Amino acid sequence: MRSLKKSEMFPKQRQILRRSFLATPVLIAVIAAATPAQLFAQTKKPQHKTAAPAVKPAKIDCGGGIELRVSGASPTQGTLLIAEVRSAKTLSDIAGKWIDRDISFWQATGASVPKGANVWRALLGVDLEQAAGDYKFNVTGKSADGAAVACEASLVVRIGKFPTERLKVAPNFVEPNPEQAEKAAEDQKKLRALYATSTPEKLWTGPFRIPLDGVKSGGNFGKRRVLNGKSNSPHSGVDLPSPTGTPVHAALRTFRRNVRRACRCRQHRDHRPRLRHLH
Asked: Which residues contact 8 (CB under 8 A, 6 or more apart)?
């Protein structure tokens, strides 16, 4: 039987509503570091033993020389996708709607954009607890002459395969006292407001990276803990263990404006060897 630390208590009450949509810089780093050609490749070798095989991208002809692409037509729960609108003509006001969330696009520039193409991109997240089934991703915008542009992609969300940890602990480790419950409710309220906010423009420039050198992916993403038979929310972060003293790099060097840090690093002093835990 494994004992739990105080920081691991009451996961249900303290659950972070980070899910997959820009859930963490680490998750964004994995997809943003790849080239568009890699993102829309028909096959991709899994990097994790629990990862589902890659699926074909969705490509929809929207008419008028406009094409909508989504990097996966049948993603699993917890997947981060990239959506792309391509046109030979100038487009503006590109926006999307995915399930119950507004999706902001940014206009792509640089070497990744084909010559003569007008390209808009967006990150599209599939929640870890999103029910499997058929969903529509709708995109709207305007052409250079002001005509409305509309396109729709049908995406099939599949059940993801993630590990489950079952533990039996003392009851006081599962049920919070009134003070802890009040603090958890306050934190949840702040986090709901934070993660419900979406900026209309891209706030970063340059590629993302994994915070540790020589590491390609983390672990425990999507892992669910069951305490005394009660299932809690899945782990929506990525764990990157390393010894004390290991340099931890910023996932991105610069932002276009000052934003609150979305990455928390803490040291667990009761682990041997000591670990750095990144969310």
From this structure: none
Tokens of 43: 């096959």
Give just the sign of the alpha carbon dihedral 50, 52, 54, 57.
negative
Each residue of 150-168: pLDDT tens digit?
999 999 999 999 999 999 9
Residue 48 and residue 130 in contact, taking contact as beta carbons nearer than 8 Å = no
* 211 pLDDT higher than 80: yes
Q: Tell me how far apart the alpha carbons of residues 218 and 26 are, in angstroms, rounded to a whole number.
A: 9
Q: Which alpha helices (DSSP H) does the chain contain, by range?
A: 25-32, 36-39, 178-195
Per-residue pLDDT at 122 exceeds 90: yes
Tell me the C-alpha distance between 161 and 96, whole Å: 28
pLDDT digits over 1-21, tens only? 444 444 444 444 444 334 433
Report the distance separating Cα 125 and Cα 98, nearest Å: 9
Q: Indicate if the pLDDT at residue 130 is higher than 50.
A: yes
Amino acid 274 reads: R
- Per DSSP, the three-state class of 79 is coil
| Residue 21 burial (CB count, 10 A) | 19
Neighbouring C-beta atoms of residue 122, cutoff 10 Å: 21
> Would you list the DSSP string of 244-267?
TT-----S-S-BSS-------EEE
Using the CB atoms, write b or e for 45-78: b if 16+ within 10 Å. eeeeeebbeebebbebebeeebbbbbbbbebbbb
Distance CA 1, CA 46 (A): 32
CA–CA distances in Å: residue 266 to residues 5, 262, 279: 13, 13, 9
